[in-house]
Amino acid sequence: MNKLKGRQLFEKIGCPTKIVAPMVDQSELAWRILSRRYGATLTYTPMLHAKLFATSEKYRKDMWSEYDGDADLDRPLVVQFCANDPEYLLKAAKLIENKCDAVDLNLGCPQGIARKGHYGSFLMEEWDLIHKLIKTLHDNLNVPVTAKIRVFPEREKTLEYAKMVLDAGAQFLTVHGRLREQKGQKTGLADWEIIKYLRDNLPSDTVFFANGNVLYPEDISRCLTYMHCDGVMSAEGNLYNPGIFVNIPNDATCEELKKAFPRVDKITREYFEIVKKYQGSQASRIAMKSHFFKILRPFLPNHVDIRTELAKLNAKSSFDVWEENVVKPVEDIVKKIFNEADIDEKDKIINGEMELWGGCYKKIPYWRCQPYFRPVNGVTGDKRLVEKLKSDLEREAVKESCDSDNSKKRKSDMGLENSTKKELKVAPV
Question: What's the CA gap between 54 and 24, in Å, rounded?
């Protein structure tokens, strides 16, 4: 079988650098279409359960429609499965191999459902099984196989793990720079250093994607430059602001910045119309409520009546009800805001001071999509990052001070020793 290898596949699908991550019930068809409109160059499906996809017609109908993987609508596309059985994984992948560009094995899901089902990051210690899962796809599919992993606490172990995944046949490697334990309230920051270590120590021709700490459009270019990776994947950053993939210059004007932080009324309407147009996608109907809450996260605290109405809706609610109770009211409120005399001043996006991490935080009006800084123990991610970097600098300063003191002491001791030797030389016998 003359199957495309990693670099060949990467070039065939256009050398994508901006990638929508595979997310449980979130990176479904309508969201992929929307994200591509705002700059995404490669998208992954939600994590699909291989055994259910292979054996349950209802599950397949809920998770996959006639439009998924459509050559004109939904490509390039990587379909991701979670699995712990090579036979079911292959059966599931065979059902969609002609409607995607590659099949990905999820080795990163840290959630309780993955622990219970024994897949995702809870296979990290079972290297023989992982190797068999990937090699089974590599040897039997018409399309390439790829993999997405999390990291171990030890760099060297993570490197050996990554090498094993590539040896099994993975043609793309995506590295999420967090430990398995980093989830929910313990999410913490992704470790860019270990991702860079892997990039630097794996074969140079490896197609390598980085994932983690991408909240602003500028983070993508920073990551590409720092890691020397082929592409950057975004999950949560993309969910709260699909404009994260918009190209903006380093010296962007306020008007240029607004393209990367679109108005919530525009995004809500656009996404809603996509879901309506492709009604055969049940996964999109199911995901719509969650997407609305994320898109409107900065908006809803200021308009709690809409939040109340949104909370009442579900996948069975008619499109007319969605439009009447949420979509249209959001549009009416934002339209009223933009009719105010001082809107030019109110609608500015303001860059803060340059931070230690190499970028700046932004002040963004609540009627625009914007990043979500997940709080842990009451401290949001932006503050945790600054505190960590300051702490690192302080530790480095203390280390340098200690090294300097030790150096001075060594020189002093050497001076005393030389002086003693000279005295011994001239001393009478």
Answer: 18
Q: Tell me, what DSSP letter sits at residue 100?
A: S
Query: Distance (Å, rounded) from C-alpha 175 to C-alpha 96?
Result: 24
Per-residue pLDDT reduced to its tens digit, 98-146:
999 999 999 988 878 888 998 888 899 999 999 999 999 999 999 999 9
Residue 65 · residue 45 · CB < 8 Å: no
Domain at 6-253: CATH architecture? Alpha-Beta Barrel (3.20)
Closest among 355, 37, 33, 106 to 213, alpha carbons compared: 355
Residue the block writes with tokens 């994984």: 89
Instruction: Please choose, from the candidates 50, 45, 49, the residue with its C-alpha nearest in 3D space to the C-alpha of residue 29.
Output: 45
CA distance 131 to 371: 37
Q: Which residues are catalytic?
A: 109
Distance, CA of 171 to CA of 2 (rounded, Å): 14
* Residues 6 or more apart whose Cβ sits within 8 Å of residue 365: 346, 347, 348, 349
* CA–CA dist 40, 245 (Å, integer): 6
